[in-house]
């Protein structure tokens, strides 16, 4: 009985890193979701499987694929990793040449199978499936209006709002989708499929990434270019903010659902942390961009030390850049255990107190007796940074100087990143010096916003703030947001 009580105090879901905005063993921002689409390929389901596998880092909670054979949908969704949800026989049953797929990390929607995407519906013109990455800021308001008008929702996912708006419209699919997309506010990348069509849309600010590729005569779409590389597709271009692509028997039609040009604001955290280093955003490779961030950090905040190390995996590129700029050797000062992400065996309370030793280990022979520069991508609550700094000290590091490749994270995200309540963000209430003391570092420096914009590259110099959304750092949101109940916002997927 005592073990059961202990388990319940450690987490509320089926495994310890499941959940929404709450601190688990590792205090990091949670990935959003990933989408993948295929139009007119005989092996659409298998392509979607491999594409989702490449996007697994964007969501580890559930996965799903829906395929159209023209006459009907074949789909499967499940809780867990892509390789756990699908097998050879299941994929063979998903026949058709149009497919959309989704990997999910829930934040605002409940963690259960009914919310796994793609969401699939029957409506007046046949079958409808929807998959999205992002967040609809005004979803609750629209949902309440629809429910008052008689709509019955099957899930707690905000994505269902768009399906209802389309289904209730008397217009054809494309015009109904345009009207629906005009009504919603937020950051999103949508894939909408019927029996014979695929619609692809990006929000008016381009907050969430979405790319288009070509594989033979087929078109493919993905949240990141690494998924296109995985299946051998040629990258064509990014989907533009406010753009709506329609693919049907007559080919690809490029359209827009809003002519009003809005500020381009791609999520800066995609560059800093979320996207895979082999992906490209706005023509800029992520590994190269992160190396430039490290180099910029060195220019802004040099400190004499014996070695530079990065917190695996997202900060390794930046650590290499810092080392190259300063001439201080880069060393593998920490090792990541890649097999602790989803475990049904709870970590002991002692392990939680000790910190990140389940997932990270300091290389004692490397850091012992050395002055260490530790590069990381962000500090959220500060708990993980403190644990890592103390872990390096326990391994014999004489000094630990922390350098962060982002400005202080002070504000919640309303566009698809799982962030805690503003009051739990350490930078919202503490100065840099107070944070330094809190994490037990010898020195601490956050990248300047100007340095981040310069390091990212690939943007138009005419774009406001380099075409990035920096709201989590500077409170300048590209859309209107409602701060009431802000802790509930995350990824509506």
UniProtKB/TrEMBL annotation:
Top-level taxon of the source organism: Bacteria
Keyword hit for Disulfide bond: no
PANTHER family linked to this entry: AMIDOPHOSPHORIBOSYLTRANSFERASE
Name of a matching Pfam family: GATase_7
Protein's UniProt name: Amidophosphoribosyltransferase
EC number: 2.4.2.14
Residue ranges occupied by any Glutamine amidotransferase type-2 domain in the UniProt entry: 33-250
Recorded metabolic or biological pathway in which this protein acts: Purine metabolism; IMP biosynthesis via de novo pathway; N(1)-(5-phospho-D-ribosyl)glycinamide from 5-phospho-alpha-D-ribose 1-diphosphate: step 1/2
Claim: Plastid is one of the keywords in the record: no
Function per UniProt: Catalyzes the formation of phosphoribosylamine from phosphoribosylpyrophosphate (PRPP) and glutamine.
Binding site for Mg(2+): 314, 376-377
Signal peptide positions on this chain: none
Cofactor: how and how many bound: Binds 1 [4Fe-4S] cluster per subunit. Binds 1 Mg(2+) ion per subunit.
Binding site residues for [4Fe-4S] cluster: 267, 413, 469, 472
GO biological process terms on file: 'de novo' IMP biosynthetic process; purine nucleobase biosynthetic process
GO molecular function: 4 iron, 4 sulfur cluster binding; amidophosphoribosyltransferase activity; magnesium ion binding
Membership in a protein family: In the C-terminal section; belongs to the purine/pyrimidine phosphoribosyltransferase family.
Transmembrane segments: none
Cofactor(s) the record lists: [4Fe-4S] cluster; Mg(2+)
Species the sequence originates in: Paenibacillus kribbensis
NCBIfam families: purF (TIGR01134)
Keywords linked to the UniProt accession: 4Fe-4S, Glutamine amidotransferase, Glycosyltransferase, Iron, Iron-sulfur, Magnesium, Metal-binding, Purine biosynthesis, Transferase
Active site residues of this protein: 33 (nucleophile)
Catalytic activity as recorded in UniProt: 5-phospho-beta-D-ribosylamine + L-glutamate + diphosphate = 5-phospho-alpha-D-ribose 1-diphosphate + L-glutamine + H2O
